[in-house]
User: Fold this.
Amino acid sequence: MSATQKTSRTPRRYGMVIDLDRCTGCGACVIACAAENNVAPGAARENDRNSISLLRVFTLNNPTAAGRRTAFLPMMCMQCEHETPCVTVCPQQAVELDVLSGIVEQMPQRCLGCRYCMTACPYHARSFNWGDPSWPAGMEATLNPAVAPRMRGVVEKCDFCQSRLHAAQDAAAVNGSLDPGIYTPACVEACPTQAITFGDWNDPEGALAKSGETFAWLEGLGTQPKVRYRSGQNWLHEMAERGGAAPAKEERHG
Amino acid sequence: MRVLIAFLLGLAGSLAFGWWGFPQLLYQREPQPLQYNHKIHIEKGSMECSSCHEVAADGQFAGIPRTASCGACHAEPLGKTEAEKILVTSYVAPERELDWKVYSRQPMNVRFSHAVHVNKAAMKCEECHGGRGSATAAEPFYRNRVTGESRNVWGPRMIRVGLKPGEGMKMSDCESCHEQKGVSAGCLGCHR
Assistant:
């Protein structure tokens, strides 16, 4: 960002608050995300570790016998703001934190596929394209023309539906502004219980500021994620500090 | 002396190959489906650019108009030209779309917004497309055989110097205008 920049855009810090008490684990957001972002259907060889998932929903079980409960944890790129781990480690500068949107931008064109960022990400929110994407015959017609499919050998992750940000900016430009404003990412739109609130942390009057007390997953790492959670259940707060129970207790979903 | 001559001949040969032969091999010429005449529509049809290339209220750019919009005037030939006859009989009457080749088409992963440049920044079409909008004929289209992209992205000459507007639109061309105007778009501002 040059010091001479003249664009009329006010910097935004896009983020989310996800209400875990509202999430039913239905997985509609996962499907909407994949459809929006042209994620190809998994090949037969794909499993938990080598598939592409920009958004996942984990099942969490309360480990204490007394209050046996289950909750669901939607998790995408947390858009960390402080010493963003993936940005720091990338040898290619293929990841950067956009100062105008606060979004951690992933550039497949520059990515060399070393996957260092995947190791660095505390949330495992990144996926690697082990193969070229392929769609069953006829399904290509349903692709989203505003999103370029990623090629083999690069890492990808959630970018808060950049194509929708672009569309919102185009609409604003007709009225003489470059500010995309508060647009709606695909997962937010798809959620039947409206568990996900999308907004701008810079806006003191906005929906995020009004969402009450929130917590981050693994807050202690100090990466200042812009995706935060909300819940009235104490055990979820505790689990968030520890980063979930032992992995064996979590099973992936979607 | 003989060595020098041989060297100069060799040099001339390689330069000729690099600057003339290589582009011939690299680019494939593809005809436009119809000789479209911009000038006649602006002058005789008294049309504006926006009547065909509109930016809609939601910011979407219409691109090149569909055949149905030509049919409004060309249900029957207005003039006597061969091109118009082809348009009426082969496209408008059977309601077939024309397969226009877009000179300025960018690679799939580039996001370009006409709303931002034309509406917000009030730029003229000529600043990026040169004289295409007032030409009397559609010039030939060249496709790069390796990448499948339009030659226009690189520009007509192998050495990228003295490019006129509409002759080249590589990332560095977008960036150099942005730098002059103090614009900064992040990677994902121009990419998708």
